[in-house]
Amino acid sequence: MKEELQKVILAAREEIMQCRSLHDLMLLKSRYTGKKSVLNGFMKKLGHLDPKERPTFGKTVNLAKEALVELLTQQENTIKEAQYNHALASQRIDLTMPGRRQDRGSLHPVTLARREIEDIFVSLGFDVAEGRDIEDEFHNFDALNTPKDHPARDLSDTFYVGGDVLLRTQTSTVQIRTMENYAPPIRIIAPGRCYRNDNDASHSPAFHQVEALVVDKGVTFADLKDMLNVFVKKMFGDEIRSRIRPHFFPFTEPSAEIDMLCVNCRGKGCNICKGSGWLEMGGAGMVDPHVFEMLGIDPEIYTGYAFGLGIDRIAMLKYNIPDMRLLFENDIRFLKQF
Ligand code: PHE
User: 219: closest CA among 173, 260, 247, 186?
Assistant: First the structure.
C-alpha cells in the first residue's frame, strides 16, 4: 500500500507541476485532495492494514495530502503570475510609437467661394439671408411676376415635387421671402442651391447662386453698377471690372445681364471667354414696381436693385477648375487639393 501511495503522489506532483491553467488545476485539486479523492480512498482502506501500522500510515497519508495542498497553492500562484505577466506584455503601450494619422477633410471649392463672397458682402453692410430649397410656385414664380404660362415654369426646366411644390430654380425666391418679412431698408445677400432640369458640361441640375437685394429710398441703377464693380474687384482683383448688357427678367425693370472682364486674358480673348474677353456672371435689374406692390411696399417711396450670380462659375474661375462636373463628382483626389 505504501508503494501504491508513493506512486500516486509522484504522479500527482508531476501533473500539478505541469498544469498551466487554473481550471485544470481545480480539477486536479478535487481529484487528489477532495472528498472523493484518491487520497481519501487510501484512508478508507486503512482497515485492511495491520492495526499497528494504521496510525503511521494514516499520518503518512495526511502529510502527503498537506504537501499536495501546499503544492497546489504554489502552482496556483505560479499560474496566476504567468497570466498576469502575459497580460502586461500583451497590453504594453509603447509610448515611442508614432500616433495613428487622422485624415483631415477640406472645404469644397464651392463652400470656399461662397464664404469669400459672404465675407465681401458682409464687409459692405449686407446681411446673409436664407430661404428654402423646396419652394412653392408663389415664391419661385407668381410673386416674381412670372405669369402662369411663362416657359420657365415648364416641367422641362423645373423639378416639381407635386402640386405647386417645386425645387427652387433661382435664389430670387429669397427676395420675396425677405420683403414679406422685413420692411425697407433691406440689404441682403442669399447664397444657396438651385435646381433646374439641365445637365451638360456647363450645366448641373443642382447649382449655386448668390442673390443680392437692396431696397431703400433713392436706390438707383448707378448703385447697382457700382456694387457689381466693387464686388468683382474684391473677388478677382483691381484690374477686373464688370459691364452690363440689356436683358429681360420678369421681376426687374430695367433688366441686365452681368459680365466681368475675363480673369484669364483680361479682355484680349482666350479659350476661357471663347474669344470675347468677357465672362457671363448672372442677371440683375431694378426691382419691378409691380413686385413691390404685391408685397405691400410703396414703389413711390422705395426703389431697389437685385442681382443673382452663379457661385459655381465664380469658384471655377477663382480656383482654375476647367470642368463644372468636377464640382459635383466628389472625387477625393480633386477635393483634396483645396
Ligand atoms: N434669378 C435670375 C436667374 O436665375 C437672375 C436674377 C437675379 C436677375 C436678380 C435679376 C435679378 O437667372
Answer: 186
